[in-house]
Amino acid sequence: MHGMCTYNLNSLRSILQKQRKLPLNYGRYRVRFYNATIDNIRETASASDLPQAMSDVAKREVQHHSNLADEWWNVNGPLQALHSLNSIRVPFIRDGLVARGSIDAKAVSTTHVLENQQILEVGCGGGILTEHLARLDAKVTGIDLSDALINVAREHLKKQANARLLENITYKIEPIEIHVKDKCNFYDAVVISEVLEHIDDKVAFLTACVHSVKPGGSVFITTLNQTIPMWLGGVLVGEYVINAAPKGTHRWEQLISPLNVQRILDTMGCQTILVNGSIYEFWRNSWRWINSTSMCYALQAIKTGSF
């Protein structure tokens, strides 16, 4: 199994650097196809399991989000935009999986629509998205590097007193690079929601994420675009004026465009089939799809073979 998951990151980066720009047409629901239970939760990863040289950037990001643990499930608190995002990202993931044809037609209009779907959420935080996907009967594994946030997720899950959720969710304090060693080509989908903009080495991170997905499975990403409008309106105004997100949450150098995400995924045998632009309307705490990816976007790619 480990042989199938061999990483060659330098080669991938080289390919990525040599690729020419691709003519893409992104917009709302605009599609383009390309030819090319609580007790069994692992409490923590051992020290030897963690990356040997966790970067200062990664440490900073983990600490920044861990500091918000007490407010994570406050729907009117500093993370209210993240809670509100579920209104579009949950249907995006649900509909993307339905479109793949692996969902029982009888379940499509029910709360069991994602039954038997194995989903990995990387960077799950306190479980805001995890619980919503599990309510659709998906089997969701949520992993995160923050023990504070995983503890928040577990405590919130226990308070739900919902046997169905308890059965459907597994939380682990574990990096994706370690998790994939035992879960190569395993999941029907990997979800990377509001995480990629906090990762410094995106090639290594996405490589591990793609390895976790079975051939024919989906990669779902939601993140911020690296544009001037996003930086000025979404980050500077959003964080320092209207407090739509905690100050210091985002950094320009860590943002990435959908084109560059697709380029990385292309080198890993993943076809990007859908990119939706989105925007957050802070005055009514609401998200909606728009015909532009200049602010935020949601992307779905399909793993076409073993990688």
From TrEMBL:
Molecular function as annotated in GO: 3-demethylubiquinol 3-O-methyltransferase activity; metal ion binding; polyprenyldihydroxybenzoate methyltransferase activity
Catalytic activity: a 3-demethylubiquinone + S-adenosyl-L-methionine = a ubiquinone + S-adenosyl-L-homocysteine; a 3-demethylubiquinol + S-adenosyl-L-methionine = a ubiquinol + S-adenosyl-L-homocysteine + H(+); a 3,4-dihydroxy-5-(all-trans-polyprenyl)benzoate + S-adenosyl-L-methionine = a 4-hydroxy-3-methoxy-5-(all-trans-polyprenyl)benzoate + S-adenosyl-L-homocysteine + H(+)
Needed co-factor(s): Mg(2+)
Record carries keyword Mitochondrion: yes
Ranges for domain Methyltransferase type: 120-221
Pathway: Cofactor biosynthesis; ubiquinone biosynthesis
Subunit field text: Component of a multi-subunit COQ enzyme complex.
UniProt: Mg(2+) binding residues: E194, E197, H198
Binding-site residues for S-adenosyl-L-methionine, renumbered to this chain: R89, G123, D144, S193
An example Gene Ontology biological process: methylation
EC number: 2.1.1.64, 2.1.1.-, 2.1.1.114
Domain of life: Eukaryota
UniProt topology in membrane: Peripheral membrane protein
Name under which the protein is recorded: Ubiquinone biosynthesis O-methyltransferase, mitochondrial
SUPFAM superfamilies xrefs: S-adenosyl-L-methionine-dependent methyltransferases
Described purpose of this protein according to its UniProt entry: O-methyltransferase required for two non-consecutive steps during ubiquinone biosynthesis. Catalyzes the 2 O-methylation of 3,4-dihydroxy-5-(all-trans-polyprenyl)benzoic acid into 4-hydroxy-3-methoxy-5-(all-trans-polyprenyl)benzoic acid. Also catalyzes the last step of ubiquinone biosynthesis by mediating methylation of 3-demethylubiquinone into ubiquinone. Also able to mediate the methylation of 3-demethylubiquinol into ubiquinol.
Top-rank EC class of the record's enzyme: transferase
Family (UniProt): Belongs to the class I-like SAM-binding methyltransferase superfamily. UbiG/COQ3 family.
GO CC terms of this entry: extrinsic component of mitochondrial inner membrane
UniProt entry keywords in alphabetical sequence: Magnesium, Membrane, Metal-binding, Methyltransferase, Mitochondrion, Mitochondrion inner membrane, S-adenosyl-L-methionine, Transferase, Ubiquinone, Ubiquinone biosynthesis
Subcellular localization, as worded in the UniProt entry: Mitochondrion inner membrane
